[in-house]
Design brief:
Undecaprenyl pyrophosphate synthetase; six-stranded parallel β-sheet; 41% helix; 13% strand; binds 3-methylbut-3-enyl trihydrogen diphosphate; binds magnesium ion; UPP_synth-like
Length: 255
Amino acid sequence: MKPFKKWFGSKTEGAEIAAQLSSDNVPNHVAVIMDGNGRWAQKRGLPRVAGHHSGMKNVKKITMAANDIGVQVLTMYAFSTENWKRPKEEVEYLMKLPLEFFPKEIEELIANNVQIRMTGWKESLPDYTLKAIQDAIDQTKHNTGLILNFALNYGSRKEMLSGIQQLVRDAKDQKINPEDIDDAMFSKYLLTDPLPDPDLLIRTSGELRISNFMLWQLAYSELYFTELCWPEFTEAHFYEAVKEYQRRARRYGGL
Ligand code: IPE
Ligand code: IPE
Ligand code: MG
């Protein structure tokens, strides 16, 4: 086991825990269900949207923490296909966050060689939201470091159903043979292609559910739940989750 000790001065909060991690068992892909923004705010007597704002600020911190230990893909669940059911004002606020996030953070993300990606349906996003994220994707597309992937307007059932519809069309057109459909082929029909499946899923806010997130891709991911709400989840907590991941034995059904 190679420790990280040498790499870390006191660079980030959590350096002490990061130094206890093993550098040869870092999860490749970490996915985060960033939940509990509203409750975090309400506990403080603030409007729910204040929680979203605070949650947005946390995204950069955790991105840098992940980057520092060599995580290759960090997927952040930012908005689900079901979140459109929320009050119009809240949805509007959430859709405007990328307009603040990217201009503010893009320079530092580029300096750290981060690539921005998006998993989700672009068509139904407001133009300004799509433009903000598309600009960030374009500006970082030649970077080669950490992939910061936003799951935005994403839902796993819809993703799988569209994949199946396309598979059926391709079979009808004789582009594929139904007998050849296997895990690898199906994965290619999903929005997450070509990203690897998550190794570690973190969900904040104490909810013990998946909420329609990457149902196929999470088949053998390690799950980590914490009572902390997303705005209060720090670098140290992130490294705590990775430390727990490193204690797990992944068997994939074998021995
Ligand atoms: C997560 O926080 C952010 C989004 C779903 C967009 P919530 O807004 O779900 O916060 P809670 O769960 O209501 O506290
Ligand atoms: C999941 O959180 C979606 C995101 C964090 C973007 P929700 O708050 O929407 O999930 P439920 O409604 O508690 O299952
Ligand atoms: Mg929630």
